[in-house]
Amino acid sequence: MFDTLSDRLTGVFDRLRGRGALNEQDVREAMREVRVALLEADVALPVARSFIDKVTEKAVGQQVLKSVTPGQQVVKIVNDELVAMLGGDEVAPLDLDARPPVVVMMVGLQGSGKTTSTAKIARLLKEKQGKKPLMASLDVNRPAAQEQLKVLGEQTGVATLPIIVGQQPVDIARRAIEAAKLQAVDVLLLDTAGRLHVDEALMAEMKAVASVTTPTEVLLVVDSLTGQDAVNVAQSFSDEVPLTGVVLTRMDGDARGGAALSMRAVTGKPIKFAGTGEKLDAIEAFHPGRVASRILG
Ligand code: GDP
Q1: Interface predicted TM-score of the whole assembly (ipTM), two decimals
Q2: Which residues are annotated as a binding site?
Q3: Which strands sit side by side in the sheet containing 133-137, from one edge to the other?
């Protein structure tokens, strides 16, 4: 992940650092190269543009150019902006500050890793935070989706809502809330249906589920390997449902990184988790600073 981007940026920065003095032209030229590197890594165009504008504005200031180590300073500005682009210094934790059962709704396209991420987060809540989670699958489109969540629940020791064949998503959601209340569940995780493409029926279903469950968190699950598509998906979802955060899956793969870098700017919401493998413990809180350091080498 980020390998090519990281190599390209390291090249630009080594050259910058290698020169004693810098003038505005040098900085602008370097930023042009950074811009190309970002676009080649699939960063969304407006995001790359705004990033370069911000860095350039800060970097061509007299304070930087007249300093003893201008190259170093420019690299620091890039680093800081990169962290900002990824969501700032802080890790964004799950917001569980509501009357239990706190509802966490998982949304995303089919194949994005939604069901797996639901189980991973439920496991984290149980193992690391001592919470009592309950998972319910509202995916009545994909055959075996409900069964898949049940199996993951068995593997992680997290309860799942019993399956009633033929029941529709909004009714399942209502039943899940009732069950969660009766069982004194802390966090109810709803794995909603995905489709191959964003469409009206999917969005309508999601809104209907949200209106009967009033989720505290609505997490969009996106596959980081899908680059620009992931960005488009994020844009469509955030236009339609009130997202509170993003889960980026397949961060263990060799994605070029554009999805990770664009997500915050496109959705305005923090990336809360990164999926790092198929195993159920392969999930991490997303650390913008660490990711920025990985990119800048
Ligand atoms: P859904 O259709 O969105 O519910 O997707 P699934 O949760 O069924 O995941 C689809 C496939 O992606 C499964 O084989 C998962 O094991 C795999 N997967 C999910 N998250 C990750 C991840 O972070 N890394 C890797 N390598 N595989 C993942």
Answers
A1: 0.99
A2: 108-115, 191-195, 249-252
A3: 159-160, 133-137, 187-191, 102-108, 217-223, 245-249, 271-275, 283-285
